[in-house]
Design brief:
Layout (H helix, E strand, L loop, with lengths): L3 E4 L6 E2 L3 H14 L15 H11 L6 H21 L3 E2 L3 H9 L6 E5 L4 H9 L9 E3 L7 H16 L8 E5 L2 H9 L3 E5 L6 H5 L5 E3 L7 H5 L11 H6 L12 H9 L1 H4 L4 E5 L5 H8 L3 E6 L2 H10 L6 E5 L11 E7 L10 H11 E12 L14 H8 L3 E7 L11 E8 L1
Helix pairs in contact: 1-3, 2-3, 3-5, 6-7
Bound molecules: magnesium ion (MG).
Length: about 425
């Protein structure tokens, strides 16, 4: 349940058309005699105080409280001027989003988590009639690190509500990787909006709870529940018992069938293979029939029983109940095969998943994955992932041998990608 919503300002609520950057540049010239003195600096996702310190360092100026204060006082004055000249625009959907939050039966606390100094934030929001919407905030005057600002905002929200507010009750809305990172640093969820700094694929690669092109048209219920489902593990056993197993196509995945028939250079030698999340064991059977000693694992006891019965005629298959994310491997395997498992686990446990794969595959062994790719998060499972996220996560442990678009079941066409990795 989201009790606190914290908004970033620039690129999330408003786009000032560079008013802040111009005010910084003019301050460098007017207050410190450094024309062009901020030209090489990157502003995106940064806090004002960290930018001032970088400016002082760049120009061998003393990093004193006096210099920081002098810079920021001049900056605030010039920012006001710049905003009057060009105030920019409110980001799409922001006004409606704030109105919907206010209209909730139990409105969440709506605050700011921003790299702006307090007075800069007030000036920017006032220029767009948004100053009244926020009842608490953490600003660059409080700390120069955005992650620390997240912790400060959490503390202030706890004071406001008169109880400790947990990270998962907080939704941070922002437009850069720095916003996602600071949300994660306090265990909060991030709704990433591609209306400012980073593109949608860049944002998605850093696992926000939800990423959208803009807030326009996003129902407030969807916004407030972003990622809330992530921490709720699916009750797989109940689904098997209810025979609600729509993901089970009754046969091995076409991508695996093609791989086992078309790549003797990898498969001719056979070996042992682990298939975590094997369900009723169709893929395990395909590996066994290709000459492997195949081990299927599933979290749901009913799946394991059904798989064992179904494939009882094969001598080179074993099925075992196991929590792949937590249990130690029964052996180090030559191969590990995955299909519909990575996309089925709560994305907050993806680090555990990567660790497990690395533990279960022996050095020099192979990990073959048929991953489900989606450009956008939606209510999972399956949960979306991107090629970039997958390569970033697995590369430290595995060398990517090849990846390709496989043949898929009709309903999954174009959404799957095969990755063949070798354990380092
Ligand atoms: Mg921003």
């Amino acid at each position: 349940m989201t009790r606190v919503v914290l908004f970033d300002i620039d690129g999330t609520l408003i786009r000032t058309g560079g008013a802040g950057v111009r005010a910084f540049a003019r301050t460098a010239e007017i207050a410190f005699g450094k024309p062009g003195g901020t030209r090489t600096m990157r502003f995106h996702g940064r806090t004002d105080t960290s930018l001032v310190r970088e400016f002082l360092r760049l120009h061998d100026l003393a990093d004193t409280a006096d210099n920081v204060d002098r810079f920021l006082a001049t900056y605030a004055f010039l920012l006001d001027e710049e905003l009057e000249r060009q105030r920019g625009e409110t980001c799409p959907g922001v006004t409606e989003c704030l109105a919907q939050l206010r209209a909730r039966p139990e409105p969440p606390v709506v605050g700011l988590l921003t790299g702006n100094i307090r007075v800069g934030a007030a000036l920017k929001l006032a220029a767009h009639g948004l100053a009244e919407d926020f009842t608490l905030g953490a600003f660059a005057d409080d700390h120069e690190s955005r992650n620390e600002l997240a912790a400060i905002a959490q503390r202030r929200a706890s004071e406001r509500l008169g109880r400790a507010v947990a990270g998962h009750e907080i939704l941070v809305i922002g437009d850069t990787l720095a916003d996602i990172e600071c949300a994660h640093s306090i265990g909060a969820r991030c709704l990433a909006v591609a209306t400012g700094g980073d593109s949608l694929p860049e944002l998605l690669a850093h696992s926000p709870a939800l990423a959208v092109d803009s807030l326009a048209g996003l129902p407030v219920e969807r916004m407030l529940s972003a990622g809330a489902h992530w921490e709720r593990p699916t009750d797989w056993e109940a689904l098997y018992q209810a025979r609600d197993t729509r993901w089970d196509k009754g046969e091995p995945t076409p991508a695996l069938v093609d791989f086992l028939h078309g790549h003797p250079e990898f498969t001719a030698r056979g070996g042992t293979v682990a298939v975590p999340g094997c369900g009723r064991g169709h893929d395990v059977r395909a590996w066994a029939e290709a000459g492997f000693e195949a081990h299927g694992f599933d979290f749901a006891p009913t799946a394991v029983v059904e798989a064992s019965e179904r494939h009882a005629g094969l001598t080179n298959v074993r099925f075992c109940q196991s929590d792949f994310l937590a249990d130690p491997p029964p052996a180090a395997f030559d191969w590990l095969f995955e299909h519909t498992l990575f996309c089925a686990i709560p994305p907050g446990r993806r680090d555990d998943y990567v660790r497990s794969v690395a533990r279960w595959v022996k050095s020099g062994g192979h990990y073959l994955a048929v991953n489900y790719l989606q450009p956008q998060d939606h209510f999972g499972p399956p949960f979306g992932a991107t090629v970039k996220e997958l390569t970033t996560r697995f590369s430290p442990h595995f060398e990517l041998v090849k990846h390709w678009v496989p043949r898929s079941f009709p309903s999954r066409e174009g959404r799957e990608r095969c990755f063949l990795w070798r354990r380092r």
